[in-house]
Amino acid sequence: MNDIRYRIPRHPLQGITVLLLLLMAACSDSDNGLDDPTPPEPVPAEITVEADTESLRSVEPSGGSITVSLTATAQWTATVEDAGTDHWLSVSPASGRAGETTVTLTIAANESPDARSASVVFVCGDDEETLTVTQQQGDVLAVSQEVYELPATASTMEVNVQANIPYTTEISVDWINAVTTRSLTEETLTFQVAANEDTESREGTITFTSKDGSLVCTVTVKQAGEELYLEVTPQTFELPATANTMEVNVQANIPYTTEISVDWINAVTARNLTEKTLTFQVTANENTGSREGTITFTSEDGSLTRTVTVRQAGEELYLEVTPTHIDVPAEGGTYTLDIRTNAGNVSIDTGDIVWISVQDYQIIVAPNTDREERIGAIVVAGEGLSQMIEVTQAGKQPSGAGGQIEDFEENEEEW
Q1: Alpha helical stretches, state H, 32-134
Q2: Is-contact 249 277, C-beta < 8 A?
Q3: What are 58-106's pLDDT values in tens digits?
């Protein structure tokens, strides 16, 4: 550049004019290639993240926070990936401008039986860095269902146990038994529950305890009592008229009483909850008509009643008469009539025979004054049954030579 010297006018306006001329001259020199500086290159977008890798790899189950140092040359963002729906890992702040800053990673407590991992991705332009956070599992001992309501019948129950630590199992009652034993890899334990043969409900517990005693889970088992029942078989007896012994099978789980409606049925064995067969004695029916009686079983609270009906046939009708034939001499006589019957009222009929009569079961035969033998019959009858007694009476015999004149006259015609 030429060394140009200017004389500064003294008048103010002249000075301003000179300055303007100098500026114009400078611009003219620059346009002519006298001053050509190089523009600065743009800064690339970069991000650097620094953190304690040991802390990232093994976060305590209780959770916590980790501080990360971040340097970026441009606008940046941070995004959490693979943290699941519970969002147990978060980052703050999640974005920022160029420069140096600190970012906080917050980790929630891990209440699951498994370790878990998630990532935080930091992006600045096309540059990115990823931090992986791994949290250890906590001590877990839990059951999926705490109360089981079971019927009185025998059953099998399954308890889903979530645990990542050794534990013991304790059952409070003898009617629950473990089928499968505890195992860290087996999540479902099976228990056998015996039938409740009592009418009252009952309750038991299954307690799971970690070996160090810090964790306890209890499952309560409530089993209903057996439904009340009172059953008798058979419910009807058809018996002959003769004396009999009958057995009634009783199945009951409650105390009961027995009531017999007639005096011809008698209990041989008394009521007993452990005795299932009761014996009853039935006396002979000496009447011709059938008869009926009942045995009623009633629970002591009166809620259940069962009835056994006993029908006994009447005795078969019979009519036995002795003698059935009588030989009577001509002079007649008296004979005893023996009648055995269950026919009730019995009639004795001699028909139109006048020489035979019956008084107080005595057959009276009048003398036969004729020479001829005579025959008569007596009929004993009752309720459709009859028995005939045949009576044969000899004729009067003639006397010897020294007999009476009456005998001679009576036999005159024979001569």
Answers
A1: 53-57
A2: yes
A3: 899 889 999 999 999 999 999 999 888 878 999 999 999 999 999 999 9
User: What does the angle CA 182 – CA 186 – CA 191 come to, to the nearest 5 degrees?
Assistant: 55
Strand partners, 20: none
Asked whether 118 and 85 are in contact (CB, 8 A), the reply is: no
CA distances from 202 to 175, 176, 208, 389 (A): 10, 11, 20, 80
Tokens of 57: 């790899």
Residues ≥6 apart with Cβ < 8 Å to 188: 158, 159, 160, 161, 180
Strands 385-393 and 325-328: parallel
What predicted TM-score, i.e. pTM, was given to this entire model? 0.47
Phi, psi for 343 (deg, rounded to 5): -85, 5
Q: Count other Cβ atoms within 10 Å, centred on residue 7.
A: 7
What DSSP line would sit under 244-261, residue for residue? EEEEEEEEESS-EEEEES
Residue 232 identity (one-letter amino acid): V
Extract the tokens encoding 134: 């791994």
